[in-house]
Amino acid sequence: MTLWARWMCGRVGWLAFLLLSMQEMAAATNWPVAADGQPLPASPPGFSYTGSPASRVHLEVFGDNLCSWTKAAWPVIQQLAQTYDANALEIRMHFFPLPYHHNAFFVAEADRYIGTTAFGGKVGARLFPFVEAIFAQQETLLTQAENLTEAQVQNRICDIAASVGVPAANLTAAFANRTMNLATRAMFKYACSRGVTYTPAFYLNGFEINPAPTNLSAWGAYINPLIAATASVASQQRCTHE
After folding, report:
1. DSSP label at 2?
2. Whose CA is closest to 113, among 178, 25, 52?
3. What CA–CA distance (Å, rounded) separates 103 from 145?
4. What would the pLDDT profile of 25-84 be if each residue is shown by its tens digit?
5. For 36-146, where are the E strands, in sequence order?
6. What are phi and psi of 56, to 5 degrees?
7. Residues 145, 103 contacting (CB under 8 angstroms)
8. pLDDT value for 102
9. Strand runs (DSSP E) across the chain, as ranges?
10. What are phi and psi of 59, to 5 degrees?
């Protein structure tokens, strides 16, 4: 068999596997399917840290809880949330587990479960406390977990989740849930479809900002003019309808 034929067989095999994975995901989640076979989630991807889809400006953050650079960027993200009114800025978090952080997918599964489950009467109320707890204990899931089994890693994640009010038994059950696993894969595939290859990756109103600012003032140079521009447009629209 020629090298070209081998390459084509490999490509066909990979595409067949990807299509099967999408079909399995759609069947397990009961999500509708797009024309390309990709399951469509029941709600927009990601989790709002502050603001909402109705906010004037939208900042998307693609992060990996086990990435030291994502952890380093978190204080600035917190400052942005504290500085801008929720009507002005939405910060939306997407979890993108990098393959070379061996346990990152398990953490992303936990993110997905905690972010879509009600604790204390509110869906997702424990998500960002959990994210911050993982940041605080990153090394326990990196070099300190090199000799642990998958079950032991999951137990360690459950212990961290329990520290912020998520019952460990509930999260243990979620790890065994095939639908949750496939939904987490969908989050990963969504990030890939946006061209994300690293973390943290920032998209402002849909466009990648790279290199991204590293402090509040530098972010303001991007965000403030956008807020002013959208406020001006809203004002003009009100005048038109009066």
Report:
1. -
2. 178
3. 9
4. 555 556 666 655 666 777 789 999 999 999 999 999 999 999 999 999 999 999 999 999
5. 47-50, 57-63, 89-95, 118-119, 122-123
6. -70, -40
7. yes
8. 93
9. 47-50, 57-63, 89-95, 118-119, 122-123, 201-204, 207-208
10. -115, 115
Q: What is the pLDDT of residues 187-235, one digit of tens each?
A: 999 999 999 999 999 999 999 999 999 999 999 999 999 999 987 555 4
Among residues 162, 186, 193, the alpha carbon closest in space to that of 105 is found at 186
Strands 89-95 and 57-63: what pairing?
parallel
Q: Residue with structure tokens 């849909």?
A: 206
Residues 168 and 197: their CA atoms lie apart, in Å, by: 32
Cα–chain center distance at 80: 18
Q: Are 39 and 25 in contact (CB under 8 A)?
A: yes
Whole-angstrom Cα distance, residue 15 to residue 18?
5
Cβ–Cβ under 8 Å, residues 160 and 106:
no
Q: What is the C-alpha to C-alpha distance for residues 136 and 134, in angstroms, rounded to an integer?
A: 5
pTM (2 d.p.): 0.82
Digit-coded pLDDT (tens) for 144-178:
999 999 999 999 999 999 999 999 999 999 999 99
In degrees to the nearest 10, what's the CA dihedral of 108, 148, 138, 41?
A: 0
**For residue 118, what are its two tokens?**
């009600």
Question: How open is the CA angle 44-47-51, to the nearest 5 degrees?
Answer: 95
Nearest to 29 by CA among 17, 14, 43, 46: 43
Q: Which amino acid is at 168?
A: A
Greatest extent of the chain over all pairs of C-alpha atoms, in Å: 73
